[in-house]
Amino acid sequence: ETGVTQSPTHLIKTRGQQVTLRCSSQSGHNTVSWYQQALGQGPQFIFQYYREEENGRGNFPPRFSGLQFPNYSSELNVNALELDDSALYLCASSLVWTSGSTDTQYFGPGTRLTVL
Amino acid sequence: GQQLNQSPQSMFIQEGEDVSMNCTSSSIFNTWLWYKQDPGEGPVLLIALYKAGELTSNGRLTAQFGITRKDSFLNISASIPSDVGIYFCAVARFSSNTGKLIFGQGTTLQVKP
Q1: Is the pLDDT of residue A100 over 70?
Q2: How far is the C-alpha of B99 from the C-alpha of B110, rounded, in Å?
Q3: Quick check: B113 and B56 in contact, CB under 8 A?
Q4: Does residue B1 sit at the A interface (CB-CB below 8 Å)?
Q5: What number of other Cβ atoms are within 10 A of residue B30's Cβ?
Q6: Is the pLDDT score of A86 beyond 50?
Q7: Residue B15 DSSP one-character state
Q8: Cα separation of B106 and B10, whole Å?
Q9: Taking a C-beta distance cutoff of 8 angstroms, is the pair B52, B104 a contact?
């Protein structure tokens, strides 16, 4: 067990709705990355948050947005849900030192989102 | 688009057999990682490789970072039923394990007792 927690475990939404997913990073970690994993595929990078700001983004539209809070926990928000957004959403936490050197990314168990 | 090619896509082996899977890329990457994902769980890091030519072991697992920085392989010796799962290779462009990771499509391993 990595110490990274995500909520909720499962979620069902309808097309056009909005969803918020939550992630608590491992104790001592200051960076959170979000990934989308479609069925039968590897995870795809959505974005990363460091010091409460977006620090790199993958090929996802602006309706995917996020936040990082002072306690380093994070939220992923998706607006105007589409059927193709159905996937497992994973967050991963890591530690970035002030020198810029980094530590391993640890993944949470994920949130399974189904869009009907 | 997809930048990593993992093979084989799936494997069905007898308990006790050795397993080998690999991952190739058309681009150079400075960090190669191998993860295992069980059903309903997130990926768990097995081995991290940061230096071209590096050979690293973790118990029954051995992984190598190709000298060209465009490939890596993972070997599992004397497989056991709990080795069942999906194995992913992942890469990063920077010499650190953070930021954007690019994952392969995965190799599904099934072990027959």
Answers
A1: no
A2: 31
A3: no
A4: no
A5: 16
A6: yes
A7: T
A8: 8
A9: no
